[in-house]
Design goal:
Two copies of one chain form a homodimer. Chain A is mostly helical and 306 residues long. Chain A has a single domain, classed as Farnesyl Diphosphate Synthase (Orthogonal Bundle). In chain A, a hairpin with a 2-residue loop joins β1 and β2. In chain A, α8 packs antiparallel against α9. The longest helix of chain A is centred in the C-terminal third of the chain and has 28 residues. At the A-B interface, α2, α6, α7 and α8 of A face α2, α6, α7 and α8 of B.
Chain lengths: 306, 306
């Protein structure tokens, strides 16, 4: 899906591949430090938490978190507790979402899902433990002159809570097999996907003591790139194979889940993704070329095929 | 089970019934304020959260939280955000614990369990939302000169996390049908029950800016009263009817769950409960008679028959 975009020419000299490689390495090392040891009691729980956290995720949210910190002139390492916290929340939401009572998925990123390996009971509890750990980690992050612990916790609690992430999951669950409007679909995508991406990016900015203007720019960027990400996910579900995706392709259609292709058609969905990504680029203007990594990541998200 | 206890004579002139009534009223009003409205979107989620929070719980943890605040000379109303937060965590843990993949309970406090009424998917998500809400509420609590938001969040995250509450649940789940030692049983009870009771009491003290010495006394009190509470719960499961308990009696035995009566026998279990309660009384000594409510609550917990 190569489309011409209004991205800055700076992106061209920037190696996203190497950036992602280096950041992922730091994030994986941090997660390994912050997660309970697999040998610590109760072993099953800790093995289960680690299984899903290290099951080959792309680390998109933590990388965006670090890139936002850099765009605001911060040291990327200062954002590692937030980067790890948002990955814990993302992983918890996947473990619970994959349960038989919810999406009932046996595979995720090409691996068996948590409940298939550890049983449903442990999967529920491992998800609970990762959600709780996210708060513990964010609570340990260094404060800045503008942002204190209670700002961090509020940001995460609101994002992961009943009116955002979980509202999206419930609306998604209730929408299955029903006719869903474009507005309702946006409601779901904003909450289920865009909210945590935005939160990841905002926390990165906050770790770098960003100005209120920068925080607003990051919020706008996150909102648009988050929606674009989910629209593209919907598109890939109907255009790619299970092998390529590492999860069951065509799943959305099989359970009659509302998606952009099913509600507005494939061509219109592609246009929407492109427009959202361009809005995301526009949001980065205040950074005047210091947001190369964020820009390159948005570009990568639009062009990805899995 | 009337046993003679080393409780202070002050307790005698104190009406626990009226105390519990007045505190419960305040707690229920606070929970009603802090929980999302049932009419707010997504309705199913919010109805489900409210269903379990208002399903007739004894409000033991929030009452202990308020009583601890009073013992330290604080205004009980200043502890209401913590009282509500710990009740949200307690309710979330019950909703998840009742799921078919865990304890598989159809009834709780005489009412159908959450997943029976709302389905398993929504029950998982309602539990997740209550856990997240607990952090949001505690994060809004007024700070004191000794205790800041990050102390509150750390206390809750550690208590609800992988090494305490969830470790207890996992060990409990894994112990079913197996021979469990007394030490292992204590490990489970400390984490599954005592930890959150202790946390509730400590947060109450912190809301009143308690001294480090008072905080230690409250910790000792909570640990012992929490263990006593669970030992008595085990005893009631084998000695009372389902009607009296509001949940399936004899359930522990049916699933071969390790309990104090099954591991040490009924008489020894009663002795252990009495000793623990006396240790709890002893822990209150530094309060020199200002902990009448806490003392009366410990007494009530030992003598209860449901």
């Amino acid at each position: 899906m190569p489309v011409s975009l209004n991205k800055s020419s700076r992106t061209k000299s920037f190696s996203l591949k190497s950036y992602i490689h280096l950041r992922s390495k730091k994030i994986n090392a941090a997660l390994n430090r912050y997660l309970p040891k697999a040998t610590a009691k109760p072993k099953t729980l800790h093995e289960s938490m680690r299984y899903s956290v290290f099951a080959g995720g792309k680390r998109l949210r933590p990388i965006l978190c670090m890139a936002a910190a850099e765009a605001c002139g911060g040291k990327p390492d200062n954002s590692l507790l937030f980067a790890s916290a948002v990955e814990c929340i993302h992983t918890y939401s996947l473990i619970h979402d994959d349960l038989p009572a919810l999406d009932n998925d046996d595979y995720r990123r090409g691996n068996k899902t948590n409940h298939i390996v550890f049983g449903e009971g442990v999967a529920v509890l491992a998800g609970d433990a990762l959600l709780t750990l996210a708060f513990e980690l964010a609570n340990q992050a260094p404060v800045t002159s503008r942002y204190k612990s209670n700002h961090f916790i509020s940001e995460i609690a609101k994002t992961a809570g009943h009116s955002k992430l979980i509202a999206g999951q419930v609306a998604d669950l209730e929408g299955e097999g029903k006719s869903v409007s474009k507005a309702q679909l946006r409601y779901i995508h904003e909450r289920k996907t865009s909210a945590l991406l935005t939160c990841s990016i905002k926390l990165g900015g906050m770790s770098a003591n960003c100005t209120p203007k920068q925080l607003q720019a990051l919020t706008d960027f996150g909102y648009n790139v988050g929606l674009a990400f989910q629209v593209i996910d919907d598109i890939l579900d109907v255009t790619q194979t299970s092998k390529k995706l590492g999860k069951t392709a065509g799943k959305d259609e099989a359970v009659q889940k509302a998606t952009y292709p099913s509600v507005v058609g494939l061509d219109e969905a592609r246009k929407i993704a492109k427009n959202l990504t361009n809005k995301a680029y526009a949001a980065l203007k205040p950074f005047k070329g210091n947001a190369v990594a964020l820009e390159a990541l948005a570009d990568y998200l639009l062009k990805r095929d899995h």
